[in-house]
Design a protein that fits this description.
Elements: E1 2-6, E2 28-32, H1 33-53, E3 59-65, H2 69-85, E4 88-94, H3 100-112, E5 118-121
Parallel strand pairs: 3-4, 3-5
Antiparallel strand pairs: 1-2
């Protein structure tokens, strides 16, 4: 996969003298997605290290309701990415038949936990959960 980084500070490509850039003709630099991902990962590691130096270890909670295989893979990959960056994770695997009120209580507990700094509620949720 390739991403394109466009230089929007170039003069008009067809020679017009205007303050708007030509949309039809753009000059860009091709960037590999893996290269960009690695750069972002390095930045995240630096930020995590800075937080740890101040006594805070970042933690992401993941909430997976049910047993959808694709969702389980996605959540597992989030845990792996966090581990590579020094971010702790806490996994909440909730049965499919969990009532909405119970799920809301779990999420409220996560929100009130000072050691958890982010939460990912994996979609889709079961039909009975709004």
């Amino acid at each position: 996969m390739a991403l394109w980084k466009f230089n929007i500070n170039l003069p008009c490509a067809v020679g017009f003298n205007c303050h708007l850039k030509c949309i039809g003709i753009m000059v860009g630099t091709r960037m590999g997605g893996l290269v960009v991902a690695e750069e972002v990962k390095k930045e995240v590691i630096l930020e995590v290290d800075a937080l740890r130096a101040r006594g805070t270890t970042p933690c992401l909670a993941t909430v997976l309701v049910g047993d959808d295989p694709a969702s389980a893979v996605y959540v597992r990959n989030k845990h792996k990415a966090c581990a590579q960056c020094g971010i702790q994770t806490k996994d909440y695997q909730i049965p499919t038949d969990t009532a909405q009120g119970q799920l809301e209580g779990i999420i409220e507990d996560i929100n009130n936990n000072d050691k958890i700094h982010g939460v990912l509620v994996q979609m889709p949720l079961p039909e009975h959960v709004d």
